[in-house]
Amino acid sequence: MSAASAKRLVFAVPGDLDTPTGGYGYDRRLIAELRAAGWSVDVLSLGDGFPWPDDTTRASAVAMLDAVAAGTPVIVDGLAFGALPELAATVCHRVPVVALVHHPLALEAGVSPAQAEALQRSERAALAGARAVIVTSPATARSVAADYGVAPDRIAVAVPGTDRPARFLPDKVDSSRHLAGDDRLGGDDRPANLISVGSLVPRKGYDVLIEALARLRAVDWRLVIVGPQDRDPMTAAAVTASIAARGLGDRVTLAGTVSADRLAALYAEADLFVSASLFEGYGMAFAEATSFGLPVVGTTGGAIPDTVPPGAGILVPPGDVAALASALRDVIATPGTRARLAAAARAAAETLPRWTDTARIVAATLDAVMRDEPTTEPRKTAGAGTDP
């Protein structure tokens, strides 16, 4: 490979890179950081409909990847890669392909057992051809090794970075006041401000969250849900109907997609982050909330226990309405609990990996791939503090 092309990379994504989800957000920031580090990154859109592309989209995606110049490293987002097992016998023999797995496709909520089996079989076959596999959490690393047959020395963990907030939590979160006995998160007569972030899709468990909050009518709270509502219109409609049926329309706001600045402002205004997600390959919103020093109430689904710093949150089993309601009641109504969680979150915020760390690990993986070396070293220095 010539010196002129040594830093060239093709980054292949399904659909529109600007789609407002955590996975695409990871891709966008990674591309930006790699470019800042000197890589020339060509973004290649593989078409829509993944992980269930039609025959035309599938053929077009394979053809576009097959047109990449021999020897040029290619990162393929896992939403597309896992649905293209034919790459293992074609493109992967021409160019060094790196799979970026946010979480295994078969673990998406709402798929039937037959669909899950088909997705796992497809993704396992595709991953067999990847030169390396980048995952976003130690939990996902364990999964692709144990369930998808990927050798550990081909796996690199590059957890999502966080941005250090321009402002930390406002003074309303004051542990000394909480410990003195104030009975609301703000220490005054206002309601507790809750925020939940994520697309309105089945995996995010908003039905569970609304049901849990419906059991807390006697507690003074307000919830803002931030996330696109067009990813699964049926789920969005069901969530809207559930809010209305339980008489929570004056307490729950569906904010939809918001700008980065607006999201930062909502985090800064919040007292508590809550998510009923059934599974996360990492959980970027959990890390973002921690970066603002917010206490967390969430679940143990997937990588969430790896993502939420010790002592910064209360995690309950996915789908357990009673447990989620109990945890929320405890954090909202008990000053000592929320003060302890907030203090742990503020301390952890200073140690969270940054996006430059994420890009450094990915760049090291690409360099190793081009030298045809194992990825063991970047896997061990993934910045999460835990080895998969």
TrEMBL record:
Matching Gene3D superfamilies: Glycogen Phosphorylase B
Which GO terms of the molecular function aspect are on file?
A: glycosyltransferase activity
Domain Glycosyl transferase family span(s) in chain numbering: 188-346
EC number assigned by the record: 2.4.-.-
- SUPFAM superfamilies to which the protein is assigned, alphabetical: UDP-Glycosyltransferase/glycogen phosphorylase
Which domain of life does the protein's organism represent? Bacteria
The record places domain Glycosyltransferase subfamily 4-like N-terminal at 86-163
Q: Which UniProt keywords apply?
A: Glycosyltransferase, Transferase
Entries under Pfam families matching the protein: Glyco_transf_4, Glycos_transf_1
Query: RNA-binding: is it a keyword of this entry?
Result: no
- The entry's protein name is Glycosyltransferase family 4 protein
Native species? Rhodoplanes azumiensis
